[in-house]
Amino acid sequence: MTHIEIRVFAHATEDEDKVLTAVRNTLPPRISENITFKRSSLTGHHGNPIVLFEAKIRDKEEAKAFLQKLASSLSSLDKEALANEIEQHVEKGCLYLRLDKQSAYLNEIRLCTTDPIHFRIHFKRANLKEIVAFCREIGLIP
């Protein structure tokens, strides 16, 4: 694993600080305190303002710590679902995960597809089999 990219959208109806708190809640404390988000202003489909926050975790140990926290926080049901559809989460040497923004704000880590926090975990020259083996080893999937 080389690095992790984090992306999250804050819609006009959302409090940007709460959105960032939700993201920080998914991260181990050491990373959460030091991570810097790049802020971009976008316009939605209907002309509504949207803010995109992006950050990267470049340190391999911190990236691993994030995945370990994720593995220990996800429910066995989410891990099972991820294991069953892992092929849909892996593309070009990256593992894509989407976490529920609302739940994350409440300190609960859950997978979801609607209005999520996006995580793209980059692996160096890894194929599906190697990524699956890594996910098993770290406890992300059973």
Task: Describe this protein's structure.
The protein contains 6 helices and 6 strands, in the order E-H-H-E-E-H-H-E-E-H-E-H. It is of the alpha+beta class and 142 residues long. It is globular and about 40 Å long.
Examine the secondary-structure arrangement and name the CATH architecture. 2-Layer Sandwich
Shape: globular
Largest beta-sheet characterization: 6 strands, antiparallel
Strand proportion, as a percent range, falls in: 25-35%
Can you lay out the helices and strands and say which pair or pack?
Layout: E1 3-11, H1 16-25, H2 29-34, E2 38-43, E3 49-57, H3 60-73, H4 76-84, E4 90-91, E5 94-100, H5 101-105, E6 116-122, H6 128-138
Antiparallel strand pairs: 1-3, 1-6, 2-3, 4-5, 5-6
Properties at a glance:
142 residues, alpha+beta, 50s Ribosomal Protein L5, Chain: A, 6-stranded antiparallel sheet
Describe what is shown at a glance:
With 142 residues, this protein is an alpha+beta fold. It is built from 6 helices and 6 strands.
